[in-house]
Amino acid sequence: MNGALGFVLRRVAGAVITLLAVSVIVYVVFYVTPGNVAQISCGPRCSPEQVHQVAQQLRLDDPLYLRYWHFLTGVLAGQDYSTGTSVAHCPAPCLGLSYRSDQQVTDIILTKLPISLSLVFGAMVLWLLLGVGTGVLSAWRRGRFTERALTGLTLAGMATPVFVLGLVLMIVVCGQLELLPFPEYVAFSDDPEQWAWNLLLPWLTLALTEAAYFARMTRAAVLETLAEDHIRTFRAYGVGERAIVGRHALRGALAPVIALNANDFGSAVGGAALTETLFGLPGIGQELVHAVTVVDLPVVTGMVLVIAFFVVLANAVADVLYAAADRRVVLT
Predict the structure, then answer these.
(1) CA separation for the pair 188, 121 (Å, rounded)
(2) DSSP letters spanning 17-34
(3) Each residue of 263-294: pLDDT tens digit?
(4) Is there a single domain that holds both residue 78 and residue 181?
(5) What's the pTM?
(6) Of the four, 112, 221, 248, 255, which is 20 to 30 A from 29 by CA?
(7) How far is CA 35 from CA 30, 41, 52, 139, 148, in A?
(8) Does residue 13 lie within any of the structural domains?
(9) Same structural domain, 290 and 172
(10) Average pLDDT, stretch 24-38?
């Protein structure tokens, strides 16, 4: 028990340190750049007074370490911002104010985040079911026609860009067959059934590409486990092939699947911009692309940190799942 608790505490501490390091890197990359940061952030049409106001908000006259400290304390404790005619309070966690809309970055993220999480969670369930199931079946039927067919489908899924796959599915499923409506996001709290139906096609689009990678990795990991000595022992004692693959080989293949799923889930929260744009889902990825286009640095910084948070969180959860699957991990 103490070993498990110590393992979890070490992973939590490591996650916090990683997030701090990421925040430093992100802040330096976005705010310590050549040129007039205030002018770039404000835009080419801003007047000198507006540029000066942006420079005051960014505290460009302060030393770099002090500016980062103000940013960090704003995240942890909140801070006040001058809007020119009044002072606006940004409660913790404060990631700044958008230069384009004067909205709090935290409010923008909280508006977009449920959409991205709805997309990623649903797609994750599908890519795990399809990918792991296909990989196990391919390893079980190795050397037969089933394996060759599944391998071909897997390679096709890996080679097909997500926007091509999404367009084909939308044209065929929504346009020609009319099996599903054209996607239009509906909040889960408003209508759970319509929420699922409208997200089914985006889930499939994102999941099919990711499932191909999971199928390849699962197949390789299961085949590697099937070649180990303890599997030969099970076979010598007359254990059936289905039980060997389902109970023993699959468990030995869980580690790489967990690692890949942690990375894919965290990056997909902000990296599914193509899928969100294709299906008109106003999520984190689409908003991040827009913020980069208009050079809205507080929004870009805040969203990059949120994406980093989910990547770190997913990997921390993966470490805990490692420990649940293999008790020896707790001792390391």
Answers:
(1) 13
(2) HHHHHHHHHHHHHHHS-S
(3) 888 888 877 888 888 888 888 888 888 888 88
(4) no
(5) 0.81
(6) 112
(7) 12, 11, 15, 56, 56
(8) yes
(9) yes
(10) 72
Give the integer Cα–Cα distance in Å for 214 and 206. 13
Residue 255 and residue 291 in contact, taking contact as beta carbons nearer than 8 Å:
no
pLDDT of residue 125: 92
* Domain shared by 132 and 236, yes or no: yes
DSSP-derived 3-state class of residue 262: helix
Q: What is the pLDDT of residues 54-85, one digit of tens each?
A: 677 666 677 778 888 888 888 888 887 765 56
CATH number of the domain residue 297 falls in: 1.10.3720.10
Give yes or no: residues 137 and 72 share one domain. Answer: no
Domain assignment of residue 303, given as a range:
110-326
**Residue 170 and residue 115 share a domain:** yes
Sign of CA dihedral 173, 177, 181, 182: positive
Same-domain pairing of 258 and 309: yes
Statement to judge: residues 44 and 172 lie in one domain: no
How far are the Cα atoms of 70, 230, 273 from residue 241, in angstroms, in the given order?
Answer: 61, 13, 42
Q: Count up the domains in the chain and report the number.
A: 2
Alpha helices in the chain (DSSP H): 2-31, 37-42, 48-58, 64-77, 105-140, 145-159, 162-169, 192-226, 229-236, 241-243, 250-252, 254-271, 273-278, 284-293, 297-325
CA-CA-CA-CA torsion sign (122, 124, 126, 129)? negative
Q: How confident is the model at residue 332 (pLDDT cuts 50, 70, 90)?
A: low
Does residue 167 form part of some domain?
yes
